[in-house]
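Inverse folding, one chain.
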């Protein structure tokens, strides 16, 4: 009798343990399923965000009309050589580039050797350029570049330690004059000094160095 009772008790304990284990397993499975569902939903959201970002980078958002880029006004080359040169220098050129209209002027028109102070000839030319920019291209951004040759700045080293400083100072002189004397907006013009690292001519001959010493004024296609 006692033996039978013991067997029944053991059976009940085993059955109870199996029931607890089964219940615990079901709970674990439920939690795993919930976690998996959350991961699937998060992955779906990330894929949608990625698609939307790709569409925006391509020019239009999902469900939206792609924004139309404002067309830049066509730059007319009204700054022709006859008007600009006016007998000042036959080597001044005006041409169209991918960036915009570029005026290329040798440095001797603007500056004495090793100097960044504008000559009277340079000032007369800049007044004409400034009027054209203010009247016809007032909305456009203007870049003024200073370029030197590779001759070290030994004689003016106390002022310009290298050609970086000299080229930048010359570009700044042109910018200041255009802003102060020609009503060019200071918000739409900026200087850049390139030293001798963007030469037009290779070599160290006097003619090559003369070509490389220059100022370039570019009326850019972009507007503000």
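Residues assigned per position:
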């Amino acid at each position: 009798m006692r033996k039978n009772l013991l067997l029944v008790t053991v059976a009940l304990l085993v059955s109870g343990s199996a029931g607890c284990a089964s219940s615990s397993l079901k709970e674990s499975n439920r939690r795993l399923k919930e976690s998996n569902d959350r991961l699937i939903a998060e992955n779906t959201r990330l894929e949608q965000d990625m698609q939307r970002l790709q569409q925006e980078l391509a020019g239009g958002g999902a469900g939206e009309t792609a924004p139309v880029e404002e067309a830049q006004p066509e730059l007319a080359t009204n700054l022709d050589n006859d008007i600009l040169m006016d007998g000042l220098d036959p080597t001044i050129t005006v041409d169209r580039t991918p960036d915009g209209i570029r005026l290329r002027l040798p440095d001797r028109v603007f500056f004495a050797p090793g100097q960044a102070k504008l000559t009277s000839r340079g000032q007369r030319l800049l007044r004409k350029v400034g009027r054209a920019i203010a009247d016809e291209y007032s909305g456009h951004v203007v870049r003024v570049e200073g370029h030197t040759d590779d001759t070290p700045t030994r004689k003016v080293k106390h002022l310009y330690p290298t050609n970086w400083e000299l080229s930048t100072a010359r570009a700044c002189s042109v910018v200041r004059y255009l802003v102060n004397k020609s009503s060019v907006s200071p918000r739409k013009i900026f200087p850049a000094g390139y030293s001798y690292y963007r030469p037009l001519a290779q070599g160290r001959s006097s003619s090559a160095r003369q070509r490389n010493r220059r100022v370039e004024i570019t009326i850019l296609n972009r507007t503000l």
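Residues 60-71, 81-85 have pLDDT under 50 and may be disordered. Residues 2-58 form the longest helix (57 residues).
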